[in-house]
Design goal:
The protein is built from 16 helices and 15 strands. The protein is of the alpha/beta class and 557 residues long.
Length: 557
């Protein structure tokens, strides 16, 4: 009997203990689940420069240039070694970055076209998901940027002191944009009234500071109306015309890069202690031409220490004729070596100045204990020739590495694998889905890009076998599709009767020898052409049939 009571007592004790454990586990699970559901999502800092080639970021192999903050970001994150823009020039590329779509799927086929607000983009998605959003700097997706300035489209950043003054404040009016018109030979432009320019919140972002009215108003508030009547957007009040040594007369204090960094700092400080996460785009107008950094950044690199690119000498004899006709870009024979070197050192100096500004934001995040909970992305909308092939600026009839192969560095907290260099091919359309996955937001339908997390984490080594990019200017010579494979790059001028371009990047990284007419590469040409034709069909290009006609005619010969 005593043994039975003892057994019953032991059984009862075990039941009570098990029940206590079960209650504790349920409580722990409840607390744990509650903490997970209320945990603040990571903040997002997206930094974009304009027209910054790979040669202007130290982490990509230039041991002379000083970009310590971007280099440190690469050391803590992942550097994409083979990252390509998806569209050219500024507006189409930016639309691809922010929407994750190819040019023909977001409608911004050239500059000054307004991005369709119904297309999901970084700002709209994050705002809908509860992020506090701010955009500071260049967008170029709301129509014409230089509102009220005469001189036409495309040369307005060459405004020199002593010329006509810009409107300021409420005098700024007459906004316009380009509408996309379909023709039998590709899209064309039609000027229409209306648009935002850089002067209104857009793209789904709640807070907004642009490079025209906002920046000019800031200069006036600082007592510099004289600056405000000339400077804005890319116009940083350069001291001399291109071809001569130049610097920005604004100085560091009044430079737009300083202004946008200040505004980004203020936005972060206002949102530091809130429960809602924030997302900020810091979009610099530099180092885009005119290449006029403020002093002392303009001559911080001695002229005699500047190397010319290995592919500097290029007679372009086997290249499309449009490249040789671009006198403002192809200045070989017009410029001496010192002029090229001065251009390059100013580019380096401008990039170093911007890097210093970026460092201010990084320091703020660390001081406010937000660095470890902030996704940081750095990239640019396209590169600059910077002496490659004897060229400066950018040229719309080519897809050279200097323009299309650009820097991209990502730092995603808790991803691990710090300091990795990702060899796999990647594209600007992959940026949006990668950001959204990093903060656990569903990727919208209609996205052409893919999440790069598997490559960044090291779980997958390879990804795409090709990347594609498009130029679609009005006119026969302005329509280009690039296919970059593992070894070869094909540049398809699908409306032009001029030659296409085929480069063996493995054996000719400088793209000096066009293999398009090579008998031994005929099959490669056909293969690359077919990849482009298939891509145009698979991605729903409205001119897919027309794109295939040039290759079809060539194959029949």
């Amino acid at each position: 009997m005593n043994n039975g009571c003892s057994a019953f007592h032991n059984f009862n004790s075990r039941v009570q203990h098990s029940f206590s454990v079960l209650v504790w586990m349920l409580c722990f699970c409840t607390l744990s689940c509650t903490n997970t559901s209320t945990e603040k999502r990571p903040n997002i800092l997206f930094i974009m420069t304009d027209q910054q080639p790979i040669s202007c970021v130290g982490a990509y192999g230039n041991d002379q240039i000083k970009t310590p903050h971007l280099d440190a970001l690469a050391g803590e994150g992942q550097l994409l070694k083979n990252f390509y823009i998806a569209a050219f020039p500024c507006s189409p590329s930016r639309a691809s970055i922010l929407t994750g779509r190819y040019l023909h799927n977001h409608n911004v086929f050239t500059n000054n076209v307004i991005l369709d607000p119904t297309i999901p983009s970084l700002g709209t998605v994050l705002s809908e998901e509860g992020y506090r959003t701010g955009y500071f700097g260049k967008a170029h997706l709301g129509g014409y940027m230089y509102v009220g300035r005469t001189g036409g489209d495309g040369v307005d950043y060459l405004h020199l002191p002593g010329e006509a003054k810009d409107p300021v404040g409420d005098e700024i009016k007459d906004y316009w944009h380009h509408k996309r018109i379909e023709t039998a030979s590709g899209w064309n432009t039609q000027r229409r009234d209306g648009g935002y320019g850089e002067d209104e919140p857009q793209l789904g972002f709640t807070e907004w500071k642009g490079g025209w009215k906002d920046y000019k108003d800031w200069l006036v508030s600082k007592g510099r109306r004289d600056f405000a009547e000339i400077a804005g957007n890319h116009d940083d009040l350069q001291s001399a015309p291109e071809g001569e040594h130049m610097y920005s007369l604004l100085g560091e204090e009044y430079h737009m890069a300083t202004y946008f960094t200040n505004e980004t700092e203020s936005f972060i400080k206002r949102n530091t202690n809130d429960n809602e996460p924030w997302a900020a785009v810091l979009s610099y107008f530099g180092p885009h031409l005119p290449v006029a950094p403020p002093q002392p950044w303009d001559d911080m690199y001695p002229l005699e220490e500047i190397p010319l690119p290995a592919n500097f000498e290029d007679d372009l004899n086997d290249k499309p004729q449009a490249q040789r006709k671009a006198n403002l870009q192809y200045v070989l024979g017009q410029w001496n070596h010192d002029q090229y070197k001065d251009y390059i050192r100013r580019y380096w100096g401008y990039s170093s100045f911007i890097d210093q500004q970026i460092g201010r934001i990084f320091q703020l995040l660390k001081e406010t204990n937000q660095w470890e909970n902030t996704v940081v992305i750095f990239t640019t909308d396209h590169g600059d020739m910077a002496g490659g092939h004897g060229m400066i600026y950018k040229l719309g009839s080519n897809a050279y590495e200097e323009l299309f192969h650009v820097p991209a560095i990502l730092r995603i907290p808790n991803l691990g694998h710090k300091g990795r260099e990702i060899e796999a091919l990647s594209s600007a359309i992959d940026v949006l889905p990668t950001i959204l996955n990093a903060v656990n937001i569903d990727i919208p339908k209609g996205i052409d890009g893919q999440d790069l997390s598997p490559q960044l984490s090291g779980s997958v080594k390879d990804s795409k076998s090709e990347v594609f990019a498009e130029i679609h200017f009005p006119g026969r010579d302005g329509k280009v599709i690039m296919c970059r494979g593992e070894q070869f790059k094909y540049v398809y001028h699908w409306m032009s009767e001029d030659v296409d371009e085929l480069y063996d990047l493995e054996n000719d990284p400088g793209e000096l020898e066009n293999l398009y007419g090579s008998e031994s590469h005929k099959e490669v040409v056909k293969e690359m052409q077919q990849k482009i034709i298939d891509w145009s069909k698979d991605t729903g290009h409205q001119y897919a049939k027309l794109i295939g006609q040039k290759a079809l005619l060539e194959h029949r010969k």
